[in-house]
Structures are given as structure tokens and as C-alpha cells.
Amino acid sequence: MNNFYSNMMKKSLKERFLLVIGVLFFIIYLTMGLAILFWQKLPLPLSQGYRTTLGIAIIVYAFLRFIRFFQKS
Hints:
Blueprint: H1 2-10, H2 13-38, H3 48-72
Helix pairs in contact: 2-3
């Protein structure tokens, strides 16, 4: 934990800001995918199969972005 804190403090303000934005967008995409999957009164006229496919695709995209973001850093 102490190593994580010291590495975080070595980053510039811009790098820390981009880290926060990256994590924020991961949470947004993950929430959007879960909402499409589980929100029954979703205002999108999609059948259950399309909703499941779209929700899973958005969740996979969120994880791929998250992994790519930390590999690049």
C-alpha cells in the first residue's frame, strides 16, 4: 500500500488527472452495461437478446479500455 502511494505521488498532476478520468469512464461504461442488462423499464425498444448482447459488449469494452489504460501507463 505504501508503494502504491509513493508511486502515485511521483506522477505529475496531469497523469493523476488522466488516471481519475480513466477510472471514472470505466465506472460509467460498466454502469451503463449493467443498466442495459438489468433495468427492466429501459427506454430503449430492444428485444431481450439484443439488450443482453449490447450490455455484455459494453461491459467487455469497459474492461478492455481499463486494461489498455493501465498497460499504457
